[in-house]
Amino acid sequence: MPAQPSRHDLLLLDRDGWAATLLRHPALAAMKPVRAWAERGFPAIARRRLPDDPPEAWPAAIALPPAQGRLRLALTLDAADVATIVPPPLLQDAIEGRLAGRLPVAWIDKAARLVAAGARHGLAPRLFGSAMWQCVTAQPTVTAASDLDLLWRVPARPTPDLDLLALARELDEIARREGPGLDGEIVFPGIGAAHWREWLRAAPADDLLIKSETGLSLVCRATLAGPAPA
Q: For the whole model, what pTM was predicted?
Protein backbone atom coordinates (compact mmCIF):
# COMPACT_ATOMS: atom_id res chain seq x y z
CA MET A 1 0.00 0.00 0.00
CA PRO A 2 1.46 3.42 -0.93
CA ALA A 3 2.25 6.00 1.74
CA GLN A 4 -0.21 8.78 2.52
CA PRO A 5 -0.29 11.30 -0.35
CA SER A 6 0.24 15.05 -0.15
CA ARG A 7 -2.07 17.62 -1.74
CA HIS A 8 -1.68 17.68 -5.53
CA ASP A 9 0.06 14.29 -5.70
CA LEU A 10 -1.20 12.12 -8.55
CA LEU A 11 -2.89 8.88 -7.56
CA LEU A 12 -2.54 6.12 -10.16
CA LEU A 13 -5.14 3.36 -10.22
CA ASP A 14 -5.14 0.24 -12.38
CA ARG A 15 -8.30 -1.08 -14.05
CA ASP A 16 -9.40 -3.00 -10.96
CA GLY A 17 -8.77 0.00 -8.73
CA TRP A 18 -10.92 2.25 -10.88
CA ALA A 19 -13.64 -0.41 -11.08
CA ALA A 20 -13.79 -0.66 -7.29
CA THR A 21 -13.79 3.13 -6.94
CA LEU A 22 -16.70 3.61 -9.34
CA LEU A 23 -18.69 0.93 -7.52
CA ARG A 24 -18.41 3.10 -4.40
CA HIS A 25 -19.42 6.21 -6.38
CA PRO A 26 -22.49 5.24 -8.45
CA ALA A 27 -23.32 8.86 -9.33
CA LEU A 28 -19.89 9.25 -10.92
CA ALA A 29 -20.08 5.83 -12.56
CA ALA A 30 -23.28 6.96 -14.29
CA MET A 31 -21.33 9.74 -16.08
CA LYS A 32 -19.91 8.63 -19.42
CA PRO A 33 -16.87 10.98 -19.29
CA VAL A 34 -15.92 9.62 -15.87
CA ARG A 35 -16.18 6.03 -17.08
CA ALA A 36 -13.99 6.95 -20.06
CA TRP A 37 -11.50 8.59 -17.67
CA ALA A 38 -11.26 5.37 -15.67
CA GLU A 39 -11.04 3.17 -18.76
CA ARG A 40 -8.09 5.19 -20.04
CA GLY A 41 -6.33 4.88 -16.69
CA PHE A 42 -6.04 8.61 -16.05
CA PRO A 43 -5.01 9.54 -12.50
CA ALA A 44 -6.87 11.27 -9.71
CA ILE A 45 -5.29 14.08 -7.71
CA ALA A 46 -5.01 14.24 -3.92
CA ARG A 47 -7.04 17.10 -2.40
CA ARG A 48 -7.60 18.43 1.09
CA ARG A 49 -10.06 16.59 3.29
CA LEU A 50 -13.68 17.74 3.54
CA PRO A 51 -15.82 17.32 6.67
CA ASP A 52 -17.99 14.58 5.15
CA ASP A 53 -15.11 12.50 3.74
CA PRO A 54 -14.86 9.05 5.37
CA PRO A 55 -11.93 9.18 7.81
CA GLU A 56 -10.29 6.05 6.41
CA ALA A 57 -10.53 7.16 2.75
CA TRP A 58 -8.12 9.24 0.69
CA PRO A 59 -9.68 12.49 -0.61
CA ALA A 60 -9.18 12.85 -4.36
CA ALA A 61 -10.56 14.62 -7.42
CA ILE A 62 -10.54 14.62 -11.20
CA ALA A 63 -11.08 17.56 -13.57
CA LEU A 64 -12.85 16.97 -16.87
CA PRO A 65 -11.78 19.11 -19.86
CA PRO A 66 -13.91 22.00 -21.14
CA ALA A 67 -15.43 19.89 -23.93
CA GLN A 68 -16.84 17.60 -21.25
CA GLY A 69 -18.24 20.33 -19.03
CA ARG A 70 -15.05 21.41 -17.20
CA LEU A 71 -16.35 19.64 -14.10
CA ARG A 72 -14.19 19.26 -11.02
CA LEU A 73 -15.40 16.11 -9.32
CA ALA A 74 -14.54 15.11 -5.76
CA LEU A 75 -14.30 11.45 -4.81
CA THR A 76 -12.62 9.30 -2.20
CA LEU A 77 -10.29 6.37 -2.76
CA ASP A 78 -9.57 3.24 -0.82
CA ALA A 79 -5.82 3.17 -0.24
CA ALA A 80 -5.75 -0.46 -1.38
CA ASP A 81 -7.02 0.60 -4.82
CA VAL A 82 -4.17 3.06 -5.43
CA ALA A 83 -1.28 1.43 -7.24
CA THR A 84 1.18 4.32 -7.10
CA ILE A 85 1.54 7.88 -5.82
CA VAL A 86 3.66 10.23 -7.90
CA PRO A 87 4.41 13.93 -7.36
CA PRO A 88 2.97 16.50 -9.75
CA PRO A 89 4.94 16.70 -13.01
CA LEU A 90 7.92 18.99 -13.26
CA LEU A 91 7.50 22.11 -15.36
CA GLN A 92 10.87 21.28 -16.94
CA ASP A 93 9.50 17.95 -18.18
CA ALA A 94 6.50 19.74 -19.68
CA ILE A 95 8.77 22.19 -21.53
CA GLU A 96 10.88 19.36 -22.91
CA GLY A 97 7.89 17.31 -24.04
CA ARG A 98 8.50 14.33 -21.77
CA LEU A 99 4.83 14.07 -20.76
CA ALA A 100 1.76 12.71 -22.54
CA GLY A 101 0.55 16.19 -23.56
CA ARG A 102 2.20 19.55 -24.17
CA LEU A 103 2.06 23.12 -22.95
CA PRO A 104 0.84 25.72 -25.45
CA VAL A 105 3.75 26.97 -27.56
CA ALA A 106 3.04 30.55 -26.46
CA TRP A 107 3.67 29.52 -22.85
CA ILE A 108 7.15 28.07 -23.33
CA ASP A 109 9.23 31.25 -22.94
CA LYS A 110 7.50 32.21 -19.71
CA ALA A 111 7.72 28.64 -18.43
CA ALA A 112 11.46 28.53 -19.13
CA ARG A 113 11.98 31.76 -17.16
CA LEU A 114 10.15 30.19 -14.22
CA VAL A 115 12.30 27.07 -14.32
CA ALA A 116 15.43 29.25 -14.36
CA ALA A 117 14.14 31.31 -11.42
CA GLY A 118 13.54 28.15 -9.43
CA ALA A 119 17.00 26.81 -10.24
CA ARG A 120 18.59 29.93 -8.80
CA HIS A 121 16.94 29.09 -5.48
CA GLY A 122 17.22 25.32 -5.47
CA LEU A 123 13.56 24.67 -6.29
CA ALA A 124 12.01 22.86 -9.27
CA PRO A 125 8.45 24.07 -9.99
CA ARG A 126 5.75 21.47 -10.48
CA LEU A 127 2.50 21.76 -12.41
CA PHE A 128 -1.04 21.58 -11.15
CA GLY A 129 -4.32 22.91 -12.53
CA SER A 130 -5.38 22.84 -16.18
CA ALA A 131 -1.83 22.72 -17.57
CA MET A 132 -1.04 19.69 -15.42
CA TRP A 133 -4.14 17.83 -16.62
CA GLN A 134 -3.31 18.63 -20.25
CA CYS A 135 0.26 17.43 -19.88
CA VAL A 136 -0.70 14.26 -18.01
CA THR A 137 -3.78 13.19 -20.00
CA ALA A 138 -3.09 14.83 -23.40
CA GLN A 139 -6.66 16.13 -23.33
CA PRO A 140 -7.25 19.80 -24.28
CA THR A 141 -7.86 21.37 -20.86
CA VAL A 142 -5.95 24.66 -21.26
CA THR A 143 -8.00 27.60 -22.55
CA ALA A 144 -7.24 31.23 -23.30
CA ALA A 145 -8.33 32.07 -19.75
CA SER A 146 -6.11 29.45 -18.07
CA ASP A 147 -3.34 30.37 -15.65
CA LEU A 148 -0.05 28.55 -15.29
CA ASP A 149 -0.42 27.01 -11.81
CA LEU A 150 2.80 25.98 -10.09
CA LEU A 151 3.85 24.37 -6.83
CA TRP A 152 7.12 25.43 -5.24
CA ARG A 153 7.81 22.63 -2.76
CA VAL A 154 10.39 23.61 -0.15
CA PRO A 155 12.56 20.59 0.72
CA ALA A 156 12.99 19.45 4.30
CA ARG A 157 16.64 20.49 3.98
CA PRO A 158 16.72 23.56 1.72
CA THR A 159 19.89 24.47 -0.12
CA PRO A 160 21.80 27.62 0.97
CA ASP A 161 20.60 29.26 -2.27
CA LEU A 162 16.96 29.25 -1.16
CA ASP A 163 15.59 32.78 -0.68
CA LEU A 164 11.82 32.67 -0.87
CA LEU A 165 11.43 36.44 -0.81
CA ALA A 166 13.79 36.84 -3.76
CA LEU A 167 12.00 34.02 -5.56
CA ALA A 168 8.60 35.63 -4.99
CA ARG A 169 9.94 38.92 -6.34
CA GLU A 170 11.16 37.13 -9.46
CA LEU A 171 7.78 35.43 -9.88
CA ASP A 172 6.06 38.79 -9.61
CA GLU A 173 8.30 40.19 -12.36
CA ILE A 174 7.80 37.16 -14.62
CA ALA A 175 4.04 37.24 -14.03
CA ARG A 176 3.92 40.68 -15.69
CA ARG A 177 5.41 39.38 -18.94
CA GLU A 178 3.40 38.31 -21.95
CA GLY A 179 1.85 34.89 -21.65
CA PRO A 180 -0.46 33.12 -19.23
CA GLY A 181 -1.32 34.42 -15.79
CA LEU A 182 0.80 32.99 -13.01
CA ASP A 183 -0.70 31.35 -9.96
CA GLY A 184 0.47 28.86 -7.37
CA GLU A 185 1.71 28.01 -3.92
CA ILE A 186 4.86 27.70 -1.86
CA VAL A 187 4.60 24.41 0.02
CA PHE A 188 6.28 24.10 3.42
CA PRO A 189 7.01 20.53 4.53
CA GLY A 190 4.85 19.36 7.41
CA ILE A 191 2.90 22.64 7.48
CA GLY A 192 1.04 23.35 4.26
CA ALA A 193 0.98 25.80 1.37
CA ALA A 194 0.78 29.59 1.07
CA HIS A 195 0.08 31.56 -2.09
CA TRP A 196 3.33 33.07 -3.35
CA ARG A 197 1.77 36.53 -3.74
CA GLU A 198 0.65 36.51 -0.10
CA TRP A 199 4.17 35.51 0.90
CA LEU A 200 5.56 38.44 -1.11
CA ARG A 201 3.22 41.02 0.40
CA ALA A 202 3.18 39.83 4.03
CA ALA A 203 5.06 41.44 6.89
CA PRO A 204 6.85 39.14 9.35
CA ALA A 205 4.08 39.42 11.95
CA ASP A 206 1.26 38.83 9.45
CA ASP A 207 -0.72 35.62 9.40
CA LEU A 208 -0.79 33.71 6.12
CA LEU A 209 -3.63 31.45 5.01
CA ILE A 210 -2.19 27.95 4.88
CA LYS A 211 -3.78 25.05 3.00
CA SER A 212 -2.97 21.55 4.12
CA GLU A 213 -4.31 18.03 3.67
CA THR A 214 -6.64 18.53 6.63
CA GLY A 215 -7.98 22.02 5.99
CA LEU A 216 -7.19 25.71 6.33
CA SER A 217 -5.29 27.54 9.06
CA LEU A 218 -3.51 30.82 9.77
CA VAL A 219 0.23 30.70 10.42
CA CYS A 220 2.48 33.63 11.32
CA ARG A 221 4.79 34.38 8.43
CA ALA A 222 7.79 34.71 10.72
CA THR A 223 7.50 31.01 11.69
CA LEU A 224 7.90 29.88 8.07
CA ALA A 225 11.11 29.48 6.11
CA GLY A 226 12.80 32.37 4.35
CA PRO A 227 13.88 35.92 5.13
CA ALA A 228 11.38 38.57 6.10
CA PRO A 229 10.38 41.22 3.59
CA ALA A 230 12.38 44.45 3.72
A: 0.94
